[in-house]
Amino acid sequence: GTYYVTAITPCFVTDTLVVTDCDQEIDNVNELNAFGDMLMPNPVTNSLRLVTGTAAEAWTISDSRGRIVAQGTFNGMNQIDIDTREYATGVYFLRLEGNDPRVLEFLKID
């Protein structure tokens, strides 16, 4: 198939990757949303990295029942690492607050 690859550091570039005759499963595909945000790896086991493409001020993680499990601020940074070792297996929602509020979804696995 055809996949789009984006490099964030040291520079923001986009290219196309074509995979042919691949007998292996491809996992941990990290997707950019319309704002250029990325959660990786997704699914996550121990540590989740969030890279924001546009400015965000604060973040909140909620579980599938709407309970807040973590929150914090960016303090001028566009990247944070979140320790997920104590999270239960399941789907979580990461809400970014700022001029362009948005919600990202990730899966916690053991």
Give helix and strand order, one letter per element, not per position.
EEEEEEEEE
Structural class: mainly beta
Strand order of the largest sheet: 6-5-8-9
Strand content: over 45%
- Percent helix range: under 10%
Count every beta strand, where a strand is a DSSP E run of 2 or more residues. Answer: 9
- Please tally the helical runs, counting DSSP H or I stretches of 4 or more residues: 0
Unreliable stretches (pLDDT < 50, length at least 5) are: none
What Rg is obtained from the alpha carbons, in whole angstroms?
15 Å
- Main sheet properties: 4 strands, antiparallel
**What global shape is seen?**
globular
- On the 0 to 100 scale, the average pLDDT is 81
What does this structure look like?
- By secondary structure, the protein is an all-beta fold.
- The chain is built from no helices and nine strands.
- It has a four-stranded antiparallel beta sheet, with no helix packed on it. Strands 3-4-7 form a three-stranded antiparallel beta sheet, with no helix packed on it. Strands 1-2 form a two-stranded antiparallel sheet.
- 15% of the residues are buried.
- The model has no long low-confidence stretch (mean pLDDT 81).
Task: Give a summary of the structure in a few sentences.
This protein has 110 residues and is mostly beta strands. It contains no helices and nine strands.
Topology:
Elements lengths: L1 E6 L5 E6 L19 E3 L6 E5 L6 E6 L4 E6 L5 E5 L6 E8 L4 E7 L2
Antiparallel strand pairs: 1-2, 3-4, 4-7, 5-6, 5-8, 8-9
Descriptive keywords:
9 strands; 110 residues; mainly beta; three-stranded antiparallel β-sheet; single chain; 0% helix; four-stranded antiparallel β-sheet
